[in-house]
Design brief:
Blueprint: H1 2-7, E1 26-31, E2 43-49, E3 56-62, E4 68-74, E5 85-92, H2 94-103, E6 106-117, E7 123-134, H3 137-145, H4 165-194, E8 200-202, E9 204-209, H5 217-250, H6 258-261, H7 265-285, H8 291-326
């Protein structure tokens, strides 16, 4: 209907966008960096995902030189007896990363932590890096030192003005080799210097869950496996139960059926006894039975039914086979 309305000029359609949002306020708290050895410990709390925030990520910036811990909490209790703290994430390797960036020429390196709000409403610290802006000092030197090219250098006068042309040409050709080699080395060194310096170092995030932790990959795989096995078991039970009801209808003595015409009394009695036993088993142990048990019970009944079904098919096919033989 919507597609047809979009094709017609008589209707106006408008796309409706649905986004998952967080239901509760989520805040991050961490200890402030100590300015002096005797400074009093101070905790900073920041609201990162207010209620109604869309699913996504946010980045927090810290000016730290040592490892520290970020705690993620619900701002208010979600339910009675439910913990407000979700997790504690320790950012490890900060001092080494800051030292490496400082050696590379970084100015005032910082730590960035990425927080992610998932579709299930769970918040996690997905990534942490040390970052520092590295300034290129070569540009500053070139700007203040001026041009150093050979064009601005005046030619040096030679003391031997009586040198012959052949001698000067020989000298220039003999010195061409070392000059070209030196130029190539300088170009290679300049290319190495021109390569950008890495200004980001990844940090380790050690997460400690104070409430129920999320499922691991192995746990998710095991849960999917249990779900598949449960679905197969339910399917086997439903199929077996439907088969029992179908057999009971075939054995109904109140009406004449082809099944009764093609079977003997002893065969129907054997099937009826097995059928009652199967119904009793399904009622008593069906909820705890495994998939293989449902299959075994059905095979036992099909073994009694198949000769009758085969006999019925032969009777059905006999007229056609007789006509074909007379042609």
């Amino acid at each position: 209907a919507e597609h047809g309305a979009s094709l017609s000029r008589q209707f106006k359609t408008k796309n409706i966008e649905v986004n998952d949002v967080g239901v509760y306020d989520v805040q991050a708290s961490y200890a402030a960096a100590a300015t002096s050895p005797n400074a009093r410990l101070r905790t900073i709390t920041t609201l990162i995902f207010p209620a109604g925030s869309k699913v996504g990520t946010k980045t927090l910036t810290f000016k730290r030189k040592e490892d520290f811990t970020i705690s993620l909490d619900y701002r208010t209790p979600v339910a009675s007896g439910f913990l407000t703290r979700m997790l504690e994430a320790e950012i490890v390797g900060v001092s080494e990363a800051i030292a490496n960036l400082t050696e590379r020429g970084a100015v005032d390196p910082i730590v960035k932590a990425t927080l992610t709000l998932s579709e299930s409403g769970f918040v996690s610290v997905s990534d942490a890096i040390a970052f520092g802006e590295i300034k290129d000092h070569r540009k500053l030197k070139g700007f203040f030192a001026g041009s150093t090219s050979a064009e601005n250098t005046p030619p040096r006068e030679t003391a031997e003005t009586s040198e012959t042309a052949s001698g000067s040409s020989t000298g220039s050709s003999s010195s061409a080799g070392p000059e070209s080699t030196t130029t190539e080395k300088q170009e290679k060194e300049e290319k190495k210097k021109a390569q950008p310096v890495e200004n980001t170092i990844s940090l380790t995030v050690d997460v400690k869950f104070t409430a129920i932790p999320p499922m691991t990959v192995e746990e998710k795989q095991e849960a999917r496996k249990r779900k598949r096995l449960k679905a197969r078991r339910e399917e086997a039970r439903n199929t077996f139960e439907s088969y029992l009801h179908r057999l009971r209808d075939l054995l109904d003595e109140s009406r004449e059926t082809p099944f009764k015409k093609c079977s003997q009394v002893s065969e129907r009695e054997a099937i009826a006894a097995k059928l009652d036993e199967s119904f009793q088993w399904l009622f008593e142990r069906g909820d705890l039975a495994e998939t293989s048990q449902f299959l075994d019970k059905r095979i036992a009944l099909e073994t009694l039914e198949k000769p009758i079904v085969h006999r019925y098919k032969e009777i059905e096919a006999f007229p056609e086979a007789l006509n074909n033989s007379q042609k």
